[in-house]
Amino acid sequence: MYDFIVVGAGPAGSRFARAAAERDHGVLVLESGAIGEPLACSGHVSLDVWAFVPETARERLHQNDIYGARFHLGGADSRAYPFYKETVVSNAIDRVGLDRTLAECARDAGAEVREQHTVTAVTEGSDRATVTANGPDGTEQFAAKVVCGADGPRSKVRSQVGLPEPDELLHGVLGFEPTPDSQDFVDVHLTVPGFFAWRIPRGEAGAEYGLAVSPGDDAPARFEALVEDYGVDIERRCSGAIPIGPPDRTVSERTFLLGDAAGQTKPFTGGGILYGMRAADVAARVLDPDRRSTLYRYEHAWRDELARDQRLGRLIRAGYSLPKPVQRAGMAAFAGEIGVHMDRPSTLFSVDQLRAMAPWR
Ligand SMILES: Cc1cc2nc3c(=O)[nH]c(=O)nc-3n(C[C@H](O)[C@H](O)[C@H](O)COP(=O)(O)OP(=O)(O)OC[C@H]3O[C@@H](n4cnc5c(N)ncnc54)[C@H](O)[C@@H]3O)c2cc1C
C-alpha cells in the first residue's frame, strides 16, 4: 500500500509528490494523459517560480521578461495605463516544459509517476483508500493511506468523495500568434464581464491573446472579437476552466484536494501555478499518512497560507466591474511605478508600495 496516491501530475500534484517522496513516503502519481498536455494555461508567473525548479531548467523554460502591465478600459487602440517596476516582475515560461520538469523532480525524489492512467473512482475505507484507474493494461486498482486530488478544476476525486465545488468556474480561451515578441509589458483589457482579456509577449514563442469569462458569456465569440481588434491571425488555440473561490471543505476521510481542485488560485487573475505549489509544500509539511487527523491540519494550514492574498484578490477583482468613470479615475490615480508583488496582493499595503505611490517619488 502506498502512503499517498496523487491524482494528476500538474504543478500542484508533482510538487506535492516530490516533497512527500523527499520525506521518505511511498508515493504513486497517476496522470490521465501525457504530462503537460493539452496546454490550457498562459504560463505567466512571478519570479517565485524559480524556487520550485532546478537551476539547470531555467534557461530552457524561460521565454520572456515582463516589467509590468498596460491596463486598458477599451480595445487595442485605447489609452494605456501602465503599472510597472524598474526590475523584472514576472516571466512568460514554457508551461508544458514546467510540468515535465516538476514531474521529473518528483521521479528523482523517488515517486512513481504513471502517465496514461485515468482515475475513474475513489473509495475511502477504514484502513485504506482505493483508487480505480483505466490504463494501457485495462482497469487497475491501487491502495493508499491517503489520496491527493490534484486533478484540476473539474476534479474527479472531488466529486468521488463528495467534496463541494469551487464558487465559480470561469471559461478561459487563449491562442498564439507566432511572430517573435519580446516587449516588456503585458496588455490587460477590462472589456469582458467580470474579468479581463490579455496579450502576453512570449519572446521567440510569439504573442499570446486570451480572456476568461463566466460560462454563459460566450468566451469563443469574445476571443474572436479580441484578435480581430488586434488584427492578428491565430495559429493555435486552446481553452480551460479557471476555478475562483475555494470549496468550503477540501478534505474528507482519507482524501485532500490540492491546486485547482481546491480552488487555490488568485481571484483577480485566475493564476494558480504558484498558489498550488505553495499549498503542496504546506501539505507535505503537515500531513502524516498514518494520522488522519493531520488532514484537518492541512485544511487550516493551506487557508492560513493563502487566505489573506485570496481575500484581497477578490477585492481587486471587484474593481473589474466598477463603472468605467470610476475605473478611469482609479487608473489615472494609481498608474506608474508599483511595489506590489503579483502573487501577494497583501504587498499592496507594504512600505515598498506606499513608497512607490508617494507623490515625491
Ligand atoms: C486560459 C488559462 C490561462 C491561465 N494562465 C495562467 C497563468 O498565466 N499563470 C498561472 O499561474 N496560472 C494560469 N492558469 C491557471 C493554471 O493553469 C492552473 O492554476 C494550474 O494549472 C493548476 O495546477 P494543478 O496542478 O492544480 O492542476 P492542472 O495543471 O490542471 O493539473 C491537473 C492534472 O490532472 C490530470 N487529471 C485530470 N483528471 C484526471 C483523472 N481523472 N485521472 C488522472 N489524472 C487526471 C490532468 O491531465 C492534469 O495533468 C491559467 C488557466 C487557464 C484556463
Can you give a write-up of this model?
The chain has helices at residues 11-22, 58-61, 95-109, 156-160, 219-230, 273-286, 294-318, 324-334, 351-357; strands at residues 2-7, 27-30, 44-46, 62-66, 68-72, 80-84, 90-93, 112-114, 118-124, 129-135, 138-149, 168-177, 185-189, 197-201, 207-213, 236-244, 255-257, 336-337. The protein is α/β, with parallel strands linked by helices and 361 residues long. The strands form 3 sheets. It has an 8-stranded mixed beta sheet with strand order 16-12-15-14-13-5-6-18, sandwiched between helices. Strands 1, 2, 8, 9, 10, 11 and 17 form a 7-stranded mixed beta sheet that branches. The chain is built from 9 helices and 18 strands. The structure holds flavin-adenine dinucleotide (FAD).
